[in-house]
């Protein structure tokens, strides 16, 4: 390399690149360092902005600053060409030609790239501002080189001006270059025409809110994530800076304050792509099985006809269902599998760092290697660590995006399936199981995206590590490997016991949550009878069983943690003893490299069982979701007859129709005995348009089943069913009114546009005017969950008003008069059923036969059959009812009391709304700022002060014993007899990856004598036994402290889980009814399920690792600082930078995680609400609207999830860049040590190795766990 530089510069090989010559900067150094390097940086940064899309707004006009910059850039691109011409003409006088051509060629390419980039930015959204500041600053870097070149020419070539006019031409070009740069800077500082401080597309905080592809308005939006950003912005997440700044300023208060998802991740786009892939798979399956059946579109038109996640028109007996995994593979497989290349490249680059670092150590110890080798090693370290950090970060970021897409697709598929599956099929699962499909099972499924690439990468790392370990200690590694492999089946047995106990614990947890659900739903009755203590004891009994299994899990997990924590020390002892007994001599390089490699060996063995466990869990969840997706759907095309009616006036016809709650196969198999074997048979039924048909009969005779058969909720076993204007749906009022958790008006409108006149007519017809006048906010008063704050009569009338407002042609009314008194029932009959609905087709099921006298037709139901059809005069005498005279006398006697009672009833009905506020559904609180001190104090007291101090002290002893063991190894090596032979093979052995080291090698920082050789000598047996005995004793103490820490932490976890649940249950049982009326049951259950799970499992697990990493980091820093005090010159500024970054990050991350939690509950609440009112939603043809609402809630949650993941990657890349700085500093120090020939150069080389291999991974792990751990502690949950 020296020869190449000397030939290029025309200098001697001994000093190829002189910096200072005769009082001036060397011309070659100036051209290569101050001219070529800045232009290369300018070209690279400018290239990152190539491809920026044009702005969708108006054209760019009246921006002279941009035009000046573009013109100056093109001038600067052309001047190097003119500069080459005189260089060729006067090459004998001006020095080496190739140097001038190289410098001018680099400048030409740099300014040409920069000019084209400016043209693109001018037409993009950057054109409204000054553009990226980084590019403008980089244009200033060549100025020192231009000035020095100008001075150099003036000093060395002034005497040649008259003889060589080309020199004057070159000087003129230099002046033109400086003048062009001045014009460029003037153009940059020129004020922009409109928007200021607009450095990124994502700074658009005050624009009009855009619309998503589904047409849903996204209010108060401030920017779109990632789209339109440059490569540089994407690599370093500078587009996230506005979001991070808002989080740091406590301005992330609502989900609308975060970015919109990139277009590729938007829910509508992902959903459509997923469904198109499903259609393709269904079509291929039909072709393979040669089934000819009509195909209907998957995308619903709103009527729910024929849109299925299965191939339409097929049955399970003739065609297998489409597999969810194959569709996910087709939709996202190519993108996901290609990320394996990033994983492979990142892993390989992770190994390159230690290998090059080892070569650099050899360079430091050797006095004969040329300087060029050291420069190459330093450049390799920088490039390898820099590219490795970028690739690993981009891999994590892209995998997170694939996980988002899979999550969107699976949740949308589950929700879509729930809207279209038949009621009889849906009855196979409980509501809790179906909600779990969308929550727990989906989360486990998307975790497969992380586990899959680990399945092949961990064995790959394991194989490379074994090879490197063999290179160090030969066959001696087999003893340690055998011991490590022996613990694998032991760990498997423990893992199986943990899984068994976990299953039993989940069963007890399900029982407890089910009991808690009943407890909360019946809280009003429980408080009336003061049964809180009794039900609390039952809940505590179930919790005790759950804690018993949790105790077994935690103690088994403590044993598992102990085995793997103590394994590196035990394996190291076995390897060293075997190596010494084979007759070899230990050296510093072998000892500490073997220790690092053992740590790398443990990582795949430790992680692989858990990775496989994650894949198995994903497989189980996939099968559960697949079972749900394979349920049969409503096939309305097959259910209803497509032929016309027998009479044009018919609105409904049924001929020889048989219906059942079970399919014929299920009835034969005897499934679902709880439903009975009731079948509905309708021989001949015809309902004319505009008729009022009454359905009467005893309880359980099939009245509600008849309405369910008309709406398609039953299984049709045979016959003919025709419904007029089927696409419009039905106006359905069910026997148990379904009320949404929203305002009264929103319940009545049900998605339709507000029409004031029609709305008032509906209120009057349904006798709701007086109720709304008494409510605190009228029809804007929010009702409780499922109308808990309303009386039965109010809920029935609101459900009836909702059906009436829809304006359907056919109305199915299932006993809406049962929950109201006689006068209100008479009002509903006269004003609503016989009034506003008089021109509609109405089928009314009721036991209030006194109101059926004006019906056109009556149906008498008995045992699932229509016993008789006739006029009221024919049917009513057959019905066992109260004689009319008795009813009239009773009404006369109770007329006055009834009127007074009605007023009392109204007052009673609105008593709860009077006590509540207008908005009963209070928004879930989101605590802002840092986690309050009382939260830490509450958790500390739950653990117990003595126990908590014991855990912290055991962690201290564990880390101290580990550091002492490393020190003892260093002391052992330092007392080995010196040798004279040199073994370059030892020092050039490959070293481990810094990203995979989990065993401390900080002993390298202690004074180690200069060991240039590794001879094979016979060891002093007495000394070896002494050192091995002491080392084994220290390792035994470390093992004791490790198991003490593991079991103390497990005991603390059990204690905390017991106390926190007890306090939570006590607070809930003592709460007033106002709390339960204004708080959704799902939100309270969330505290007893998912949040309590965080206390039981997630928080202790993360906190355990967090504390271990904190102590490991502190112990390592103490050892490094003690061994190499001057490392503080690098660590001190990096520490300050680290704390500055993490403080900036933690505020934003904390708010984003809280927003994610807040937006997650509405998804599950809306899904549960949908399942409850499924028959009403489908009958009124509102499935499209509910699917759009689910999509809106999902996208809002995905926005927060994506922003949280992106903030994590923002932190990750910056911390990895800190590691790159450390590696670069190591290379610089190594070269300085080599150049100055300092004494004992091996010490700094070995001292820096642990700082590179351990500091960055532990700091990164510490920060990640910090951000994952402490959001679980905030009290806003």
From TrEMBL:
Domain annotation ABC transporter: ranges: 652-888
Pfam families attached to this UniProt entry: ABC_membrane, ABC_tran
Any single biological process term in GO: lipid transport
Bias type Acidic residues, positions: 904-913
GO molecular function, one term: ATP hydrolysis activity
Record keywords, A-Z: ATP-binding, Cell membrane, Lipid transport, Membrane, Nucleotide-binding, Repeat, Translocase, Transmembrane, Transmembrane helix, Transport
Chief place where the protein resides: membrane
EC number: 7.6.2.2
Family the UniProt entry places it in: Belongs to the ABC transporter superfamily. ABCC family. Conjugate transporter (TC 3.A.1.208) subfamily.
Protein name: ABC-type xenobiotic transporter
Record organism: Alligator sinensis (Chinese alligator)
Gene: ABCC10
């Amino acid at each position: 390399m020296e020869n190449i530089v000397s030939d290029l510069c025309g200098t001697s090989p001994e000093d190829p690149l002189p910096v200072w010559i005769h009082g001036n900067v060397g011309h070659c150094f100036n051209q290569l360092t101050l001219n070529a390097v800045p232009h290369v940086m300018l070209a690279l940064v400018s290239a990152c902005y190539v491809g920026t899309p044009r702005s969708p707004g108006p054209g760019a006009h009246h921006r002279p600053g941009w035009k000046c910059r573009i013109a100056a850039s093109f001038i600067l691109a052309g001047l190097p060409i003119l500069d080459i011409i005189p260089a060729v003409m006067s090459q004998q006088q001006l020095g080496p030609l190739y140097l001038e051509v190289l410098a001018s060629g680099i400048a030409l390419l740099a300014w040409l790239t920069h000019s084209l980039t400016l043209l693109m930015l001018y037409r993009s959204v950057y054109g409204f501002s000054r553009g990226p500041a980084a590019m403008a600053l980089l244009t200033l870097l060549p100025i020192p080189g231009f000035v020095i070149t100008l001075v150099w020419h003036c000093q060395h070539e002034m005497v040649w001006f008259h003889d060589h006019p080309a020199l004057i031409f070159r000087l003129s070009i230099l002046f033109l270059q400086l003048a062009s740069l001045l014009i460029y800077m003037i153009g940059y500082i020129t004020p922009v025409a409109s928007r200021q401080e607009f450095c990124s597309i994502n700074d658009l905080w005050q624009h009009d809110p855009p619309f998503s592809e589904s047409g849903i308005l996204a209010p108060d939006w401030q920017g779109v994530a990632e789209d339109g950003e440059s490569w540089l912005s994407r690599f370093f997440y500078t587009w996230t800076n506005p979001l991070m700044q808002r989080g740091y300023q406590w301005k992330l208060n609502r989900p609308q304050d975060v970015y919109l998802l990139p277009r590729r991740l938007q829910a509508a786009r992902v959903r459509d792509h997923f469904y198109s892939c499903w259609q393709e798979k269904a079509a291929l399956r039909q072709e393979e099985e040669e089934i000819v059946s009509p195909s209907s579109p998957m995308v619903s038109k709103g009527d729910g006809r024929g849109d299925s996640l299965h191939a339409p028109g097929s049955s399970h007996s003739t065609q297998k269902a489409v597999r969810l995994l194959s569709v996910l593979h087709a939709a996202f497989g190519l993108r996901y599998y290609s990320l394996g290349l990033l994983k492979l490249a990142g892993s390989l680059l992770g190994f390159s760092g230690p290998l090059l670092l080892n070569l650099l150590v050899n360079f430091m110890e050797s006095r004969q290697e040329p300087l060029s080798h050291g420069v190459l090693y330093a450049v390799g370290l920088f490039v390898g660590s820099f590219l490795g950090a970028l690739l690993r970060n981009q891999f994590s970021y892209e995998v997170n995006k694939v996980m988002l897409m899979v999550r969107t697709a699976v949740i949308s598929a589950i929700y879509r399936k729930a809207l279209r599956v038949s009621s009889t099929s849906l009855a196979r699962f409980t509501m809790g199981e179906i909600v779990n499909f969308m929550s727990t099972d989906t989360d486990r499924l998307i975790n497969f995206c992380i586990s899959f690439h680990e399945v092949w990468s961990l064995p790959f790392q394991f194989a490379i590590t074994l090879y490197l370990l063999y290179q160090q200690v030969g066959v001696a590694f087999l003893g340690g490997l055998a011991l490590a492999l022996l613990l694998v089946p032991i760990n498997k047995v423990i893992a199986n016991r943990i899984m068994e106990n976990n299953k039993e614990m989940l069963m007890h947890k399900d029982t407890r949550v089910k009991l808690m659900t009943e407890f909360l739903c019946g809280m009003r009755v429980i408080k009336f009878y003061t049964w809180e203590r009794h039900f609390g004891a039952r809940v505590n009994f179930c919790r005790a069983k759950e804690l018993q299994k949790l105790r077994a899990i935690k103690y088994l997990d403590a044993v598992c943690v102990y085995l793997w924590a103590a394994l590196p020390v035990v394996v190291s002892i076995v390897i060293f003893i075997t190596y010494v007994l084979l007759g070899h001599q230990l050296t510093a390089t072998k000892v500490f490299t073997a220790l690092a490699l053992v740590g790398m060996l443990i990582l795949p063995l430790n992680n692989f069982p858990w990775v496989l466990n994650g894949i198995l869990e994903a497989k189980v969840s996939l099968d559960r979701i697949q079972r749900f997706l394979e349920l049969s759907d409503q096939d309305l095309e097959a259910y209803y007859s497509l032929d016309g009616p027998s009479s044009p006036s018919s609105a409904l016809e049924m001929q020889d129709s048989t219906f059942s709650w079970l399919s014929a196969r299920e009835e034969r198999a005897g499934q679902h005995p709880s439903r009975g074997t009731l079948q509905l048979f309708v021989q001949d039924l015809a309902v004319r348009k505009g008729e009022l048909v009454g359905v009467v009969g005893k309880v359980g005779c099939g009245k509600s089943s008849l309405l369910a058969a008309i709406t398609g909720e039953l299984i049709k076993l045979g016959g003919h069913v025709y419904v007029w204007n089927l696409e419009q749906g039905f106006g359905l009022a069910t026997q148990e009114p379904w009320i949404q958790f929203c305002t009264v008006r929103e319940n009545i409108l049900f998605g339709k546009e507000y029409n004031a006149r029609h709305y008032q007519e509906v209120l009057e017809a349904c006798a709701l005017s007086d109720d709304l006048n008494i409510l605190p906010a009228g029809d804007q008063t929010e009702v409780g969950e499922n109308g808990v704050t309303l009386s039965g009569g109010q809920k029935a009338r609101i459900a009836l008003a909702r059906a009436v407002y829809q304006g359907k042609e056919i109305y199915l009314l299932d006993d809406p008069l049962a929950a109201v008194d006689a006068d209100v029932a008479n009002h509903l009959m006269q004003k609503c059923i016989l009034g506003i609905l008089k021109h509609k087709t109405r089928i009314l099921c009721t036991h209030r036969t006194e109101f059926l006298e004006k019906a056109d037709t009556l149906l008498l139901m008995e045992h699932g059959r229509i016993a008789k059809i006739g006029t009221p005069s024919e049917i009513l005498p057959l019905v066992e009812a109260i004689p009319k005279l008795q009813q009239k006398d009773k009404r006369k006697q109770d007329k006055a009391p009834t009127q007074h009672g009605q007023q009392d009833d109204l007052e009673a009905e609105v008593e709860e709304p009077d006590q509540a506020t207008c908005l009963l559904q209070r928004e879930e609180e989101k605590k802002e700022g840092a986690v309050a001190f009382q939260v830490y104090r509450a958790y500390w007291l739950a653990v117990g002060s003595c126990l908590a101090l014991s855990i912290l002290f055991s962690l201290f002893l564990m880390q101290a014993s580990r550091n002492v063991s490393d020190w003892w190894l260093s002391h052992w090596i330092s007392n080995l007899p010196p040798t004279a032979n040199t073994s370059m093979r030892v020092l050039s052995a490959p070293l481990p990856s810094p990203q995979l080291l989990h065993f401390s090698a900080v002993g390298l920082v202690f004074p180690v004598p200069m060991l240039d050789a590794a001879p094979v000598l016979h060891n002093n047996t007495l000394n070896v036994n002494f050192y091995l005995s002491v080392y084994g004793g220290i390792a035994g103490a470390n093992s004791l402290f490790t198991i003490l820490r593991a079991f103390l932490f497990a005991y603390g976890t059990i204690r905390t889980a017991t106390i926190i649940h007890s306090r939570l249950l006590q607070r809930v049982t003592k709460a007033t009814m106002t709390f339960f009326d204004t708080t959704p049951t799902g939100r309270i259950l969330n505290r007893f399920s998912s949040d309590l799970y965080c206390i039981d499992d997630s928080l202790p697990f993360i906190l355990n690792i967090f504390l271990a990493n904190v102590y490991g980091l502190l112990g390592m820093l103490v050892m490094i600082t003690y061994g190499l005090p001057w490392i503080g010159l690098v660590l001190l500024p990096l520490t300050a930078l680290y704390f500055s970054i993490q403080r900036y990050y933690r505020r934003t991350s904390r708010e984003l995680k809280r927003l994610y939690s807040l937006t997650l509950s509405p998804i599950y609440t809306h899904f549960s609400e949908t399942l409850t009112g499924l028959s009403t939603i489908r009958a009124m043809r509102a499935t499209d609207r509910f699917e759009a609402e689910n999509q809106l809630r999902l996208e809002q949650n995905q926005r927060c999830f994506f922003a949280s993941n992106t903030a994590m990657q923002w932190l990750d890349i910056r911390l990895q860049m800190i590691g790159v700085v450390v590696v670069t500093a190591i290379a610089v120090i190594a070269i300085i040590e080599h150049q100055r020939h300092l004494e004992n150069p091996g010490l700094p080389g070995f001292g820096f190795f642990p700082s590179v291999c351990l500091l960055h991974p532990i700091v990164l792990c510490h920060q990640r766990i910090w951000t994952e751990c402490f959001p679980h502690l905030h009290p806003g949950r």
